[in-house]
Amino acid sequence: MKQCCWKARNGEFYIGLNIGGIALDMLLDTGFSHPRCEVGIGLEALIYDSLKRNGKIDNEKTYQRILANGSTDIVVTGEVEAQLICAGHIFGPRVKVRARKGTYNSVGYCFFKTLKGCRLVWEFEEDEVCIEWKGVI
């Protein structure tokens, strides 16, 4: 089984992702989830718009959501291809994942569910997070 690990930086975990040909450090956000697991990553608006201009965003959807305080928010999402980056090299399966526009660059629980044949290992004492993959690099 192949393994890739990322050390915490200033108490936060970032993992490398290649999203539509752009290498990004993505904050691992343990609170980022979606009720139906439709959205797995968040992208800053400039990154999202660049991917869209270059034809890397598919199946874009816009919807309105109601916030806890009763106000509404417009949410834009689209599907992108993503793959882990480990020590500068592509690692793990290439996946299609829905990205939300206009947030910080982040990955949540629903992204990890797309990684078939993988396992997430959190080493608390080592202050690192690792992904193990059964596939071939």
Using brief descriptors, characterize the structure shown.
single chain; 137 residues; mainly beta; 6-stranded mixed barrel; 3-stranded antiparallel β-sheet; globular
Descriptive overview:
- With 137 residues, the chain is mainly beta.
- Helix content is 10%, strand content 53%.
- It is built from 2 helices and 10 strands; from the N terminus they run ββββαββββαββ.
- It has helices spanning 45-53, 109-113, and strands at residues 2-7, 14-19, 22-28, 41-43, 58-66, 72-86, 89-101, 106-107, 118-123, 128-133.
- The strands form 2 sheets. The chain has a 6-stranded mixed barrel.
- The longest helix is centred in the middle third of the chain and has 9 residues, at 45-53.
Describe, in short, the structure shown.
It is built from 2 helices and 10 strands. With 137 residues, it is mainly beta.
Helix and strand run: EEEEHEEEEHEE
Biggest sheet, open or closed, and with what strands and sense?
A: 6 strands, mixed, barrel
Task: Report helical residue fraction.
Answer: 10-25%
Number of helices: 2
